[in-house]
Amino acid sequence: MARNNRRKFLQYASIAPLSAVLPANGSTNDFPDKPIKIVVGFSAGGTTDALPRLFATQMSRILGQTIVVENKPGAAGNIATAQVVRSAPDGYTLLASSIGQITVSPHTMNMSVDPQRDLEHISMFGEGDQFLTINKQVPAATIEEFISLVKSKPHTLFYGDSGAGGNMHLYLEYFRMLAGIDIDAVHFKGGSQIMPDLISNRVQLSLLSNIVMNSHAKDGSLRPILLYGKKRDPHYPDVPTVREAGLPDLETASNWFGLHAPKGTPRSVIDKIHRALVQSLKTKEVQEGLVTLGITAGGNTPEAFSQRIARESETFKKVAELTKIRPGSI
């Protein structure tokens, strides 16, 4: 897909209303018999926002009911998490999460809820790699040159993350620790809010998804220097993976997105939402959108998703201890 189409897609996904109401397929007493709300914990413009808007359009058609996406940014997505946890367990209020809200924040922030325990985990709906990206004015062309630069000028460069205690904060601190460099953090309320400061060089480094980075990398304003992934991206063949750069421990820093409901939501409702999500991920519209966003489709079962969350929560508990990011420390 052409680069300008990628940019237009994200702009459209950020503002497109999800309000088309179709006739219900069955009794009005069956779920769903009223609009469903999907809460997103970050501001419009990033992948965490664009993905649920993409599949919710198709889920609305499949379920025969309006689906509205609502942004509740703040606290690395945890304001949204708490809102959904405290909602009625009836399937009408769902959470579209990033990995950080579910497996990272419980170990890095003081939270009033426990996402792993207090939510029903429906399915992972997508997963993608991320690029460690620097401003063009930074005098470094490779990850090795960047590390050498920061070592020669400690505490003079800054990285931007999407919220203190979130997965991006943890991943960037883990990089800082493994690379042995002193670079300071600036915390934003979502990935899209980082971009003006990164492009203007007020912060020099961040961790960006394909869709957020692409147009700026192509016009030369930003430079990807490291891929948080296991395989090189064909669009950026010269950018090494973390393992190739001698930082294999960063492979744990994955970037998935999931759908969740309040604890106690009936299994029949969970199953109906899951089926609609899986069907939506198979549609041409969603598959094309996923390619544009640089995301691989998910669709695992609630059981498999819950098991993955449990495993990764243990991993990030250890990483949080290593990086000394813990509740009350940020």
UniProtKB/TrEMBL annotation:
Keywords: Receptor. InterPro entries: BUG (IPR005064), Bug_dom1 (IPR042100). CDD domains: PBP2_Bug_TTT. The keyword Heme does not apply. The keyword Aminoacyl-tRNA synthetase does not apply. It comes from the Bacteria. Belongs to the UPF0065 (bug) family. This is Tripartite-type tricarboxylate transporter receptor subunit TctC.
